[in-house]
Amino acid sequence: MASCLFGEHTSSDIAKIAKRRKKPVVILPMGALEAHGEHLPLWTDTITPFKLAQKVAKRTGALVLPPIPYGFCYTLRPWKGTVSLKSQTFAAVVRDITRELVRNGFDRLLFMNGHGADGTIAGHVLKELADELKFTACVVSWWNIEGVGGGGHGDEGEASLVMSLTGWKKRKSRQAPSHNYFGRVIPMPKDQFTKYGYAGKVGGESVARGRKMEKVIVSKMVKLVKANLLLKE
Description:
Layout lengths: L10 H8 L7 E5 L13 H17 L2 E2 L22 H17 L4 E6 L2 H14 L6 E6 L14 H11 L40 H20 L7
Helix pairs in contact: 2-5, 2-6, 3-4, 5-6
């Protein structure tokens, strides 16, 4: 069985695949390297969409690109370990990769997002590129899928998913206060995240919960790919 990983193919392999009448959907996982509290790894936002994308690809024949491991992480820069690109840098990376994929003959592109700001930036870039290139793209942030129950940053939902997908062992986490603000406040209030660099409830994470989330996400993404990225709600 051929690998679902784009990077494991040779140049001639990709040339043949790109000539097919029905080319596979190409999935680009988008992530970040940033603080996720004391209980989750810095690359949480990268490894999560990458692992999910591989599960989707194995059921659909899609190809998974190496993930973009850095994102625009303005809000988490006060915490050590966060490595942020500027928003225009990330936009340029998405723009160049998209152009290169289309040049290589691929016209259905799924951007599997693991970091909030990445999805917003990628969406704007793709809208602009659609004026000059012919392709169909879809940007999906896993926590926005109905029934997943995620939404926090480094919370027990995200922690459960990381544990399920990667085998990451549960670590001690300390519940601390964080606060929501109406609208998008800039500069970010210092208490929008906890002092440990996460937001939301922690402590109830489990592999079992992660597997349930994983099942919902993968099922939805498989339907999306099989619908040629035009899945009606």
